[in-house]
Amino acid sequence: MLNRVLVPRIRILGKLGGPISLTRLLSPSPSRVRPPRPHEVHISPLASLQFARYSTEPQTSGNTISKSSISISPLSRRELFQFLNLESFTESEIKDRFKLLSHSPSTSSTITLDSISKYTNQYEFENSDSPQMAASRFLKTFQYNNETTKSKSSISLEEFNSTVTTLASKVDVKHIAPITLSMLLVGSSVGIVTPIMPYVVESLSLSTHDFGYVIAAFGAAKLLGNIPSAILVEKHGRKPYLVFSLALVAIGNGGIGIAVGLDHLIVLRLFTGFGVAALSTAATLAITDISTPLNRASTMAPVMAAFSAGTALGPAIGGLAADSFGVTTTFYMVRGELEQNLNGMVCLLFPFD
Amino acid sequence: MTLAVMNNFLLSETQQAPYRRNRGEPTFLEMKQNLTIKQSFLDAKDSWVPLMQDSRIRNVVLLNSAYWVALAGSQMTLLPLYLTNPEFAPGALTAASLGKVYAGMSVVQVLGTAPIAKLADKFGKREAMIFGCGLVSASMAGLTFVDSIEGMAVTLGMWSLGSTFLSTAPVAYVADVASGKDRAQAMALFRTFSDVGFMAGATCAGVFAALTSFAPGIIWGGGFLLTATSVFSALKAAEGGGGAGGGEGK
What we know:
The complex is a heterodimer of chains A (353) and B (250).
Chain A: H1 2-9, E1 11-13, E2 19-21, H2 22-26, H3 45-54, H4 77-84, H5 91-102, E3 111-112, H6 113-120, E4 123-125, H7 131-145, E5 154-155, H8 157-169, H9 173-203, H10 208-236, H11 239-254, H12 262-289, H13 296-325, H14 327-335, H15 342-349
Antiparallel strand pairs in A: 1-2, 3-5
Chain B: H1 2-10, E1 20-22, H2 28-34, H3 37-53, H4 55-83, H5 95-123, H6 125-143, H7 149-177, H8 183-211, H9 214-239
Helix pairs in contact in B: 4-6, 4-7, 4-8, 4-9, 5-6, 5-7, 6-7, 6-9, 7-8, 8-9
């Protein structure tokens, strides 16, 4: 465990004259170790020395680390905010954390490696970071993210505030892009069904009353699915539900192409409703995880806009697809399995339209 | 299905153990993950009352629910019927024109979401909600008085812009003020109340329009939303503070 995280972050300049990864020295399975991040740059000489001061305790399961030159990766934004235990990100909360880390009630004091270490000694850190390592990584974060603190070994309140606020306001585009794409396509697949449903109702000889049940089934499933989805997403994580809920939506929408009665349609719309409830819950919580109160609405915006765009585009796509390929084929296209699925052949042989 | 497979490769898990923890104490994430499904449900149930007792969460959840009552009733149920009815002063729209109207409203929402979300982050999410609800209710009431297509376009543009304020601000606010361990249930309650509002709004508007006509139904939606917004604003003012953006209210 220690090796897995500590090792990629620390390199020693060995006798061969270049940086040697400790992975090879300490880990029996280097392939499982995360490669160093591009931003894992060498720490300034001053901070290196200070780190060396604190690294006298054994930190690598009995292996000693040379003090000659050590590189420490900065904390990620998420790690930094968790390190500081920030929740509201108000100016007063940030100031409180500064006072806590500087061990001084005065705002004119500074945070140094010494003062941070007093704070980190009270806690345990993820990835087997020792308190000393966490303190060094914390300082490195400010050196890495703020030009004015690049070569400094102490942080003033102004620098602390500006770095934290800047990092907390930045939108994490890398993480939201795939969620945005998912919501665009899910919005489209939900919208595609809208103009085609009347044809399905007609082909199955359903009454308006029956159609009402079909529409209500989706709403009811979505309504009833919210709370269980939240419980499950919290228990198992966001990713499984961002993946499997899509499969549920796909089955719910694609299955309409082969439904032969009202009960089938209702069950399929229940599937879609539960799928959408799980997906929305997982997507919203995933966005919440990667955002802060300073950028939460901005982080949610692309996802919401994509879903709106999808639902707006969906009916147009659905209408065009139904005109060009037929109703049944359109539902299969939504399911995305037409080519590989045996049922696709059935639907082509026995189309509804 | 293709998207599900793609997501499996593209997405990374965002729910991670906190970097810093108290010595020897499990994190709330570990505690939640160690619960059985039944215990998780009981745990969730226990969090609903405290969450709804928090006036910041309760007021936003209820205002958002009122917004959905008005939106489902006026925009999604009565608006298409009103615009295609001879009762509409500038002349009944055709199905194609109605499609263009809705497409235009969607375009406003899609283009407006990001800049408006930035404003909400900067100036306050509750302020954004009040402004958005005010815009929507004014547009709902105003639409029944327009007598030209241009007037209709402006009114519906404002309507859509108002809705855009509500697309991110309320959910982001609830996420801001709920604590990490209760956040998922706070969001679930928020969403459930929205869905209830949606279903109630469509039903009520339908009944009201059947008893009167489309225009009074739409005005009723606007009036209902305006009342809810006024109550929300008054409660917010009574609470005091928390006017700034970001982590307001915490």
